[in-house]
Amino acid sequence: MENRKIPASELIINSDGSIYHLHLKPEHLASTVFTVGDPDRVPIVSRHFDQIDFKTQKREFVTHTGWKNGQRVTVMSTGMGTDNIEILMTELDALVNVDLESRRVKAEKTSLQIIRIGTSGSMQAELPVGTLLASEVAIGMDTLMAYYPELEGDQSLAKTIQTELGLPFLPYQAGASSFLLGKLDQNFVKGVTLTCPGFYAPQGRELRLKPRFDQMIERLSSLSVAGKRLTNFEMETAGYFAMGELLGHQMLSLNALVANRPLGKFDPNADQTMDRLIQLALNLFV
Hints:
By secondary structure, the protein is an alpha/beta fold. The protein is built from 7 helices and 13 strands. It has one domain: Nucleoside phosphorylase domain (Rossmann fold). A 5-stranded mixed beta barrel has the order 7-11-10-8-12. A hairpin with a 2-residue loop joins strand 2 and strand 3. Helix 2 runs parallel beside helix 6. The chain is globular. The chain starts with 31 loop residues before the first strand and ends with a helix.
């Protein structure tokens, strides 16, 4: 099956030879890719590059590729949610592991290093705003993985969450690259991230509509499996980790904790916290 020719309807190539959503050609992509959710954050990252050779934008996907410290590097935006991450990961993988002209999978595979730089909310009172957190494990509260091969790793946290909330589906659980985690320094704490399919009720927020699950934050933050507790909420990390595991790419998610949900606090210096995270990430991985 790997050597089959992928139909034009399944692998869509634009008239200029770029892949459909990302509007990229293989030569536009570095092997180290930093991702951000907000398109406006791409130039905030790339201003730290020594030079920028390529820029493009299509929909919410903005890409800058250039050089820093003698290494080629890409930064790109994804928009929000694991549905966008599924598109991003599939098309990034195709750029390096599919011959776009013959539409056949390459025999020799390339593994990208993909590092998310994003914001997140703390689920634990003792993790204050301004904390920088690296996700060791992520739990997906969406159903994306119901459409893909089963993940092989430990699913005990996902099963515990399903039982606690009485969910009609099983969340999925995946981990970061141990190689990339090993490059982190003392500026980061490590945690377990809950990836949610929305910002309001799926993360326990109530404005006019009451969430279905009462005391969701309190219930989930108190769970512990093999000494691991949930540390933070966001909307993409589990999708990254799961797709990376299935496709063979090295993944990491770095989070600036800009909200503390148990204490009801928001970081008054969120922009500075994010810029500190960006500079640390570039220094550690480039």
